[in-house]
Amino acid sequence: MKYDLLVYNIGQLILPKASQTPLKGQEMKELVVKEHAAFAVLDGKIAWIGHDQVGRSLSVREKLDAGQKLVSPGLVDSHTHLVFGGSREHELPFKQAGLSYLEILAKGGGILSTVEATKLATEEELFMKTSVHLERMISFGVTTIEAKSGYGLERATEFKQLKVIRRLQEKYPAAIVSTFLGPHAVPPSYKGNEDQFINEMIGLLTEIKQEQLAQFVDIFCETGVFSISQSRKFLQAAKELGFGLKIHADEIHSLGGAQLAAQLGAASADHLVASSDEGIKCLSETDTVAVLLPGTTFYLGKDRYAKARELIDHGTAVAIATDFNPGSCVTENLQMIMCLAALKLKMTAEEIWNAVTVNAAHAIGKGMEAGTLAIGQQADFVLWNVPNFRYIPYHFGVNHTESVYIAGDKTWELKPYG
Length: 418
Description:
By secondary structure, the protein is an alpha/beta fold.
């Protein structure tokens, strides 16, 4: 047999455990890291993994000398608000003055500011703008991405965002999972009549499903936004139509969003900064992934981070993601989030790698397709300009990626000087 590509002379090869369910508790502490390893690609998939010396004897069309550097699966960013108009640098003084997220929202800023900018932008403008953000994510080693709508709060703009995501899916080799987040905030015209707004968002689900514009739905369950009962109604309606479920849960106040996610069998419960002990217990009894977003806590200048240690130690599956968005976490750099997970969430390097690969993939319904390097899986991998897997959570604020491969093809590489 003649393989298409051989990757050899690897310093360390990260092989997260492939599993039909996310890694939970003690499993998250276990990470297979092979030295003197090599692997081969055929027809865009991993076809062989073994010892470097054996690999060098294989018949191949092309060879990639890893130069004793780290190789991992492509990273998975499982929570992003990728498509939006405008930017919100004018809100930074509000944050510096100590105004809370909800206080900025009450002033007509926050999400509502971005909603207006997104409504005014054309589909083409949004597509061009989002392409820049997406390409930057790929440059940081991300090969699978979740992208939400949520800056329309009405049919026309929500559908515009979802159509931009579909165009990105068609143009780029990266896997992009689309999420409808229509109930992201309460439009001013619906204040006091949130139930009607929820009904209108439910009314869009059938058309979204028929046009295959989203695989998941999401809702912002929070004080001043949507209640537990409203969130349950929306998510239940979506579940009955076959959508996967996600929920912005317990970010600011402990409303019971984690419990709701567990009860409904959601793929993920996201944020969870304020989750109660009961919420953590409920999540630990399910395969719902707790997607933690330490970059948001950091950017908002808060001291309280999600309880990653309690979640993991109680047996919950944990992932981490950027939460890339224009207001509360303006970064496409998942590597930076890995560092914050080490410093602020007290996660080990092994847990962090599992959280940005296999568990992040399970959080967006890609658990058997992304986040691992196993025989038969698509060959999405990253060559890192670092000596070992502990280095990236340690050295923050820069891009350690040397090259990114999707389905065995080089998608991005660091350009040398000169």
